[in-house]
Specification:
The protein is α+β, with helices and mostly antiparallel strands and 265 residues long. The chain has eleven helices and 14 strands.
Length: 265
């Protein structure tokens, strides 16, 4: 690990000030990705701004049909929240399936979406539920936020503050995971909303999380597992690695989509 200056602010304003005053600073949330990267000397920030002490970035609230989760809320807090379980049970179940207990009690929703790992779970929920991501500067739709592999629309120094999820009519997430890491080889989040069906896939795309318009169109007309039977994603757009070929991932997308629709009811 290289030397860096360490900051632990107590407010968003102080965190932004510390980051803007650094030569090459970065925020750290749960540290699930950044800390191992620093240990391997794959990153060399001049300053590390720890958001763990910023109380205003933690918490869950429900207003009407919208669930808002602040950025530093841990996966375990989302999974165990009675409010999330009542409003969007699929989101609570997704959080409960991330990593292991240690990861769930350290990792945060804001850190997860800001990192946008191609196999992370939350990006699929954000896209399928049509979430809105609020930063310290603006608000972005999930469709505009995720821009590619480990890439988002966040500008240099911009911080995720909260994520707001509209309550769907029905929703479920199904994941075929790596048994060691719990990362998704393929994860599919299917949601039935007032404006139609939305289907988002993680763990498979060469450009990270993506939606499947053909499945959305079919499910908007007929919300049933049979509606997506036979709809396949082009394997040429999918990842291939030691865990699964692109063709196998293409097969899994359809299987997981059918399971998600069935689980949603």
């Amino acid at each position: 690990m290289y030397d860096f200056a360490y900051h632990k602010p107590s407010s968003v304003a102080d965190a932004v000030a510390a980051r803007s005053g650094a030569e090459d600073g970065t925020y750290v949330a749960g540290g699930m990705t950044l800390v191992p990267t620093l240990k391997q000397r794959l990153a060399q920030p001049s300053d590390l701004v720890d958001l763990g002490g910023v109380g205003e970035l933690k918490g869950i609230s429900v207003s009407g049909n919208t669930v808002t989760i602040k950025a530093m809320t841990t996966h375990a807090a989302v999974a165990n929240s009675s409010e999330v379980q009542a409003a969007i049970p699929a989101l609570a179940a997704l959080a409960g399936g991330i990593g292991d207990p240690q990861v769930r009690n350290r990792g945060t929703i804001g850190g997860s979406i800001a990192n946008n790992d191609p196999a992370a779970d939350y990006p699929a929920a954000c896209l399928a539920l049509g979430a809105t991501i609020k930063t310290d500067k603006r608000e972005l739709s999930a469709d505009d936020f995720f821009t590619g592999l480990f890439e988002t629309a966040l500008e240099d120094g911009e911080m995720v503050v909260s994520i707001s999820f509209p309550k769907p009519e029905k929703a479920a997430y199904q994941k075929f995971d790596n048994p060691a890491s719990r990362y998704a080889l393929v994860g599919v989040f299917a949601a039935k909303t007032g404006s139609g069906a939305r289907v988002a896939v993680t763990g498979a795309g060469q450009d990270g999380v993506f939606r499947v318009p053909a499945m959305e169109s079919a499910l908007s007309t007929n919300w049933s597992a049979g509606a997506v039977d036979g709809i396949a994603v082009d394997a040429g757009t999918l990842n291939a690695d030691i865990h699964a070929s692109a063709e196998y991932r293409a097969h899994l997308i359809t299987v997981m989509a059918k399971r998600a629709v069935s689980a949603a009811g």
